[in-house]
Design goal:
single chain, 120 residues, alpha/beta, Rossmann fold, five-stranded mixed sheet, 32% helix, DNA binding, Resolvase-like_N_sf, Resolvase/invertase-type recombinase catalytic domain-containing protein, Resolv_N, DNA recombination
Amino acid sequence: MMKKYKKRGKKMKVLIYSRVALNDNNKLDKNIEEMKEYIKSQPDWELKDVYSEVASGLDNSKTEYNKLIKDIEEKVIDIVIVKNESSLCRDVVEFLKLINLLEKNNVKLFILDNKDFYKK
């Protein structure tokens, strides 16, 4: 069962991050719509922004990914929602850096395909 996260008296600010491979461009809109629908089903969540890009998961210089990192560091979001872990990046070291950054800034990562928050 999914653990509920809630801020006292405030909705959780959620950021959608969607990345698809260069040959999967048609999946981008579908993935974003799925995540928007899920956010709507969560009464304590509020969509703040959507960052999306068509890029290789091994490319660590992705523009929208870097905006995501900045928002995490500036603590302007509470939850990042992705379709699956590979949507973020395919580099294991980079993924672990991101997980540590999320934890350091008290931002939760929600994996839509698992319908649950990421757990180490």
